[in-house]
Amino acid sequence: MIETFVCEEAPTPLGNYSVAVGCGELIFVSGTGPRDPKTNRVPGLVLNEKGERVKYDIEAETRLTLENIQKILVSAGSSLDRVIEVNVYLTNMSDFEAYNRVYGGYFSSHRPARTTIGVASLPGKISIEMKVVASR
After folding, report:
1. 2-135, what's its fold?
2. Distances (CA, A) of 38 to 1, 92, 131
C-alpha cells in the first residue's frame, strides 16, 4: 500500500507530485530543492532582467535543500540518519567540492549511498536538487 505525505514546513511542489510517498518500511522523497517554504525564494540566487541566473550560492542552496529534506522526512516518520540513498543533481559540476563539504556536515558518520549527476538545468533556476530513500 502506498501512502502519500504532505509537509506543511517544506516548499510546495512545483508540479503534480507528492513531496514523499511511503511503501512498507521505505519513504521516497521527491526531488527537493532550496526554496524557502515561507518566502518561496532561493538563498543567494540573483537573476538578471531576463530572468537568467547570474549569481548563486551553492553552499546556501545545499544547506536549505537538506533542511527541507529533513523536514519532509520527520513529517513522514523518519530522519536523515535513516537515509539509505541520495541522488544529487547539480547544474555545475565544479560546485561538487563546495556542496560535498556542506553535505558532509549532515552525513558525517552515517554515509548513505550517493550518486551525483550533472544536469543542464533544474526547475525554478536552482543549482541543486536531491531525492532520497529512507527507512521509517
Report:
1. 60s Ribosomal Protein L30; Chain: A; (3.30.1330)
2. 32, 27, 21
